[in-house]
Design a protein that fits this description.
The chain is mainly alpha-helical. It has 4 helices and no strands. The protein is about 85% helix and about 0% strand. Helix 1 packs antiparallel against helix 2, helix 2 packs antiparallel against helix 3 and helix 2 runs parallel beside helix 4.
């Protein structure tokens, strides 16, 4: 992790667009999940949650349980982080 989040986000958005263009829903879902992960690392929980929920839905539609489980784990982590932030406020 070299904290090059902006560059990584740009590359993932480009890759997602390409996957959508060629009809590869699995690749597009992976990009969404990774984008959510990057946003979570930057404490941008709301945006991360949106991306991860979208990826979760796609993985469920595709029947890819491992991807869905990974997204749900990340969403659980966001909920925990938000609860901890509220406890400090």
């Amino acid at each position: 992790m070299r904290h090059q989040y902006e560059e990584a986000q740009l590359k993932l958005e480009e890759a997602r667009s390409e996957f959508i263009t060629i009809g590869n829903r699995f690749g597009a879902a992976q990009c969404l999940g990774s984008l959510g992960d990057i946003l979570q690392m930057q404490d941008q929980y709301e945006e991360a949650q949106v991306k991860l929920e979208e990826a979760l839905s796609e993985f469920n539609d595709l029947g890819f349980q491992a991807g869905a489980d990974w997204c749900q784990e990340k969403l659980d982590g966001i909920a925990l982080a938000r609860n901890q932030q509220e406890g400090r406020a």
